[in-house]
Amino acid sequence: MKRPLYKHLAVACLLLLHLSDSLAAGGDKPSAVTVVEVVAKSLQEEIPLAGSAEALRESALSSRVAGVVKEVHVSEGDRVEAGQLILSLDPAIAELEVA
Question: What is the pTM of this model?
Answer without folding.
Answer: 0.37
